[in-house]
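Need residues for this backbone.
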């Protein structure tokens, strides 16, 4: 029997079910779907704005303002075509159009976004962004997106492991593949889990594969 891989399912980078749900009009679930998309995409969008030269507070207000704008125009999500490319590129295009609309942009900044303000850790994100716009904003958007996907994939894997009572296994395998445990061998890590070296290598290979697929 082939070893089970259910602990290491790849995280789907674009949750199209949320995109489709967000486009529905007069549906309570659509607001929840939009909030879900907001939580997934706010970091790349904020990073793009900061790299484009916007100040921290203006960037926060513009991210909030964009999603408030989309809340009023659900047809935007209905135009998203899965076969034509990545949703994050579609959303970045929406942000650029929003910025080009001076009236909407100024209104967003003046009213502090206008959208429901979620508890977002802008301060921690800001610490990783320098004030200068020397790096290409689009490249930074993609880089931050990849980091966000990896963080979410790791969070989900950890939650699954904790639910199954396998948190120690998860932490040990991740410490090994990330190099956080320093110079060590698969055999020594396998001994910590009381499994064979081959079994440990298989676990490490599955986690690497899941995280690699997540970032593609």
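Answer:
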């Amino acid at each position: 029997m082939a070893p089970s891989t259910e602990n290491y399912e790849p995280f789907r980078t674009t949750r199209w079910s949320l995109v489709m749900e967000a486009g529905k009009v007069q549906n309570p679930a659509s607001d929840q779907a939009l909030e879900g998309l907001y939580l997934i995409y706010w970091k790349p969008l904020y990073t793009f704005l900061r790299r484009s030269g916007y100040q921290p507070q203006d960037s926060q207000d513009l991210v909030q303002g964009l999603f408030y704008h989309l809340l009023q125009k659900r047809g935007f999500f209905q135009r998203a075509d899965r076969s034509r490319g990545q949703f994050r590129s579609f959303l970045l295009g929406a942000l650029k159009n929003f910025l080009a609309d001076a009236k909407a942009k100024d209104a967003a900044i003046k009213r502090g976004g206008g959208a429901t303000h979620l508890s977002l850790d802008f301060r921690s994100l800001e610490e990783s962004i320098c004030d200068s716009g020397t790096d290409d904003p689009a490249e930074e958007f993609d880089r931050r997106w990849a980091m966000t996907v990896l963080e979410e994939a790791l969070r989900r894997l950890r939650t699954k492991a904790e639910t199954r009572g396998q948190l120690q296994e998860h932490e040990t395998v991740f410490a090994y593949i990330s190099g956080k445990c320093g110079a060590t061998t698969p055999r020594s890590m396998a001994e910590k889990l009381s499994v064979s070296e081959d079994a440990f290598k298989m676990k490490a290979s599955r986690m690497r594969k899941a995280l690699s697929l997540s970032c593609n």
